[in-house]
Amino acid sequence: MSDDLKKDNYNIQDIIKILPHRYPFILIDRIDEVKPGEYVNAIKNVTINEPYFQGHFPGQPVMPGVLSLESIAQTTAFLMLYELDDPLKKNMFISGVDGVRFRRLIVPGDQLHINIRLKSKKLTLYKFEGTIKIDGKLAVQAIITSNLVDRVEV
């Protein structure tokens, strides 16, 4: 990895050098803290102009639960990919989701604090514990299992 990507916090320009996701599907805005092989803390700012709000409960916009899980999954991928020399040559694919709990609705104006901790690693299979907090209160929790695979070149 280049020296400009070896740091403790990352903005969106840094994140897209590591994750393959692009608008409108990049679901993390900033990395506040990362400790290689252990944990990462990310931020997602939820705004009313995100495309899913047009059709997901018009009149009472709510972030789809599956997208909150995707924001957790993207943060787990960041934790593993940012250590690689060429992170865009690999992908992390979800292979399991367990213990999911949605504790509160996520609405426009919320700032998601996504906290990921690596629980275990066996070959290319990783297990993570993830939470999303809003204003210090638990909103989502899940155990995500993912595989690190070679990225298909297009």
Describe the model.
This protein is mainly β and 154 residues long. It has a single domain, classed as Roll (Thiol Ester Dehydrase, Chain A). The chain contains 2 helices and 6 strands. Strands 1-2-4-5-6-3 form a 6-stranded antiparallel beta sheet, covered by helices on one side. Strand 1 (30-35) and strand 2 form a beta hairpin. The chain is globular and about 45 Å long. The mean pLDDT is 94.
Summarize the structure.
This protein is mainly β and 154 residues long. It has helices spanning 12-15, 65-81, and strands at residues 30-35, 39-45, 90-102, 111-122, 125-134, 137-150. A hairpin with a 2-residue loop joins β4 and β5.
How many separate structural domains?
Answer: 1
The ordered H/E elements are HEEHEEEE
Q: Residue ranges: pLDDT <50 for 5 or more in a row?
A: none
Provide the CATH top-level class.
Alpha Beta
Radius of gyration: 15 Å
Number of strands: 6
**Widest sheet, order of strands:** 1-2-4-5-6-3
Strand content: 35-45%
**Whole-number mean pLDDT:** 94
Please report the distance between the alpha carbons of the first and last residues.
22 Å
Count the DSSP helices: 2
Structural class: mainly beta
Proper CATH architecture? Roll
What spatial form do the alpha-carbon principal axes imply?
Answer: globular
Helix percentage: 10-25%
CATH superfamily: Hotdog Thioesterase
Largest sheet: 6 strands, antiparallel
